[in-house]
Each structure stands twice: as structure tokens, then as C-alpha cells.
Write a structure and sequence with these properties.
The chain has 364 residues and is an alpha/beta fold. It has 14 helices and 9 strands. The longest helix has 17 residues. The protein is globular, with a radius of gyration of 24 Å.
């Protein structure tokens, strides 16, 4: 099997791991591919151990790695080295979105198909493709930027801890044995998501809420989610449910204004009455079509930018190279946005996950 055949399969596998929260960054992926050059890339066991030793960074990555490996390769042997092409089979859902039973045949998908699917606009997906995207979102684990709390805890470095140093010296007859340190405890930074569920966002709202479900599962106590349309609705409790299908069913029952209008300025003003935004990363997912007064939205975005640690605006239309933020809502909000990112595809959601983990993107 030559490098041109194996490369898209293994790079696609590494991207699947990143979507599931495994620290399979570009440097680790390069190490994975280098290891495969010295092994049999058609041997399932060689691929498994090469990936596990190079793509996993922490012990808790291993269960995710095992699940992704099984889902990606579907328990079938890798193609022999003499095979002209590489095809891996992974689970997919039936056209109605229901899970297949163990006795039903699964749909085969090549790694190149998955790569194309990652960049596809979710508004143009077939039911089968949408089910595959939903499955990958259910596997996604987003990292979280850390912040220093006020509480000091024992540490290997930081400021000297005189109390511990003296206590240990007293145990040894007054002779100091070693220096002790303390530092501020690290906690995940709070993330707040506001998802526009108005009519103009109907093609994207469901997928964005599934992404919100993945973000909540990654840090349940440090995440809040609201829907925004003609009113503001808190959805955090519904999205804390483990099963994505059950959570989305509860969300659909909780939102009273699906596919209505958009009054982002008024909803943002209502949101800022709560302390959720203070010091948080605030993510607003909307196309910026504002039915209300854009100047009100601009004023509330100004307040938000002063309260939040970072403001990220996710616009599905940003994925179009010809897109320009010309709507009244976007023009009013733009001066107060730290990052304006696309929200139309799985690849765009992975970029957003990177921002939440602290990786920087281009400034708005």
C-alpha cells in the first residue's frame, strides 16, 4: 500500500479522534504517519498500537481512542498491502435517523468521503449524511480553556508556601528539608452559548444545538446554553442528558419559538441581567438577521464585550468565500466580536472547539 492510498485514511482517523476530544494534534498525527512508515499499514494491530502510542496524550484519551477506532474501522480487517484502494467501513444511521440493529448491513464510507463530508454545508446534506454528522458530533469532546481561581493549592512550582515549609521542618527537628510551593487552582473557563433558532437559521439550528450538547457534556458545570428567537430560553438542564437523541427531544419541547423571528438585541439585554457572561467565553450562533433595532443590539454587544472574557460569533454564512457581514445585526455587532467564525460544517465546528480550548483563530 503506497503513501498516497493510506494517507487520507489515517489523516481522517486522526481528525475523527480530535472531534472526539483526543489530543491528536498535527504533531502527533505526523508521528503516527511516521510510525506507520516502519510498520505494516495493512495490519490492524500495527495501526491500533501505532495510533495509541502516538495520538493519545492522557490516560483518559484511551477509552475514547478505542471507541473511535472501533467506529472508524468497524471491526473489519484493514485492506491488504496489495489492495489498490483503502476503504474502511463505519457505522451509519438509516435514512429515518434510527440506529441499525446488529443484523442490518451498515453503509460503507471511504475516508475520502468522510473528508468531503467534514467540509459540506449541513444545510445541503442528505438524511444519511446528516445522521453521520450527528454521530460524529455525539462523539465530539471539546477541550476547555483553563483559568486561575483565587484558591491556592499545593503545587510543584509557583510561590513559596511558608506554612508547609515550617511544618515539615518542625517534623525534622527544625531543619528545612525541601521547599514547598503553592499556586492558584486551575478551573475550566465558563462557556455560554446562545443559539439562534429563528426561521432564517432553521437549516442549522438543530446541528448547532447538537454541538452545544457536546460542549455541555465536556464540562457540565461550566457551560450554559440558551436559545434565542422571540424569547430567551435556558436549555442547560435538557442538554446535560447523556443521550443525544433524548436531549434533543427535550430541547424541542422546551423551545417555544422555533422558526420564529429574531430579536437578538432584546434577548441579549435579557441575558445580561444574569451574571452568566461575566468572565466567560460567550458564543453567539446566528446569521445576524435582526428584526429589532440594530442599535439596541450594538449597545448590548458593547456591554457584553466588557463583561465577557471573549466573544465568539458563529455565522453559518461565513463559510461562503463571498460572504460579507452586511446585515444590520452583523454590522452592529462586529466591532465587539473577538472571533467571527463559520458555523456551516463539521470542520467549522472543530475550529470552534479549538477556540474554546484556547487555540487562537483569525480576528473578526
Amino acid at each position: 500500500m503506497n503513501g498516497g492510498e493510506i494517507l487520507p485514511v489515517m489523516v481522517g482517523f486522526a481528525r475523527t479522534l480530535r472531534a472526539a476530544g483526543v489530543a491528536a494534534d498535527h504533531e502527533r498525527t505526523r508521528g503516527f504517519l511516521t510510525a506507520l512508515e516502519n510498520l505494516d499499514a495493512g495490519n490492524r494491530k500495527d495501526v491500533y498500537w501505532a495510533g495509541r502510542l502516538t495520538l493519545c496524550a492522557r490516560p483518559d484519551d484511551i477509552p475514547r481512542y478505542d471507541r473511535c477506532f472501533a467506529a472508524y474501522f468497524d471491526g473489519r480487517p484493514l485492506p491488504a498491502s496489495s489492495a489498490p484502494t483503502v476503504t474502511v467501513t463505519r457505522y451509519t444511521a438509516s435514512p429515518d435517523g434510527a440506529e441499525r440493529s446488529a443484523g442490518e448491513p451498515a453503509t460503507a464510507a471511504t475516508a475520502s468521503t468522510l473528508e468531503i463530508l467534514r467540509g459540506r454545508d449541513v444545510a445541503s446534506l442528505t438524511p444519511q449524511e446528516r445522521a453521520e454528522i450527528n454521530r460524529l458530533l455525539a462523539l465530539m469532546r471539546t477541550g476547555r480553556q483553563q483559568r486561575a481561581s483565587r484558591r491556592l493549592v499545593p503545587s510543584k512550582q509557583g510561590r513559596l508556601d511558608p506554612h508547609r515549609i515550617v511544618r515539615e521542618a518542625m517534623k525534622r527537628g527544625g531543619e528545612p528539608a525541601r521547599l514547598r510551593f503553592r499556586d492558584r487552582r486551575r478551573k475550566p473557563r465558563r462557556v455560554v452559548l446562545l443559539v439562534d433558532v429563528s426561521g432564517s437559521m432553521a437549516a442549522y439550528a438543530d446541528t448547532l444545538l447538537r454541538l452545544a450538547h457536546a460542549v455541555v457534556r465536556s464540562a457540565p458545570r461550566a457551560t450554559e446554553v440558551f436559545s434565542a428567537g422571540t424569547r430567551l430560553t435556558r436549555l442547560t438542564a435538557e442538554l446535560r442528558l447523556r443521550d443525544a437523541a433524548v436531549a434533543m427531544d427535550q430541547v424541542s419541547r422546551a423551545i417555544p419559538d422555533w422558526s420564529g423571528g429574531t430579536r437578538l438585541g432584546e434577548e441579549l439585554r435579557a441575558f445580561l441581567r444574569f451574571p452568566d457572561a461575566r468572565g466567560a467565553i460567550v458564543v453567539i450562533a446566528s446569521d445576524g438577521w435582526e428584526r429589532g433595532d440594530p442599535s439596541l443590539l450594538g449597545a448590548q454587544m458593547g456591554r457584553l464585550s466588557r463583561m465577557a472574557h471573549r466573544v465568539i460569533w458563529v455565522n453559518p454564512h461565513k463559510g461562503d468565500p463571498a460572504y460579507r457581514p452586511l446585515t444590520g445585526g452583523m454590522r452592529a455587532a462586529l466591532p465587539y466580536i473577538d472571533d467571527l467564525v463559520a458555523g456551516h460544517s463539521l470542520a467549522a465546528y472543530e475550529e470552534l472547539a479549538g477556540l474554546l480550548a484556547g487555540r487562537r483563530a483569525g480576528h473578526a
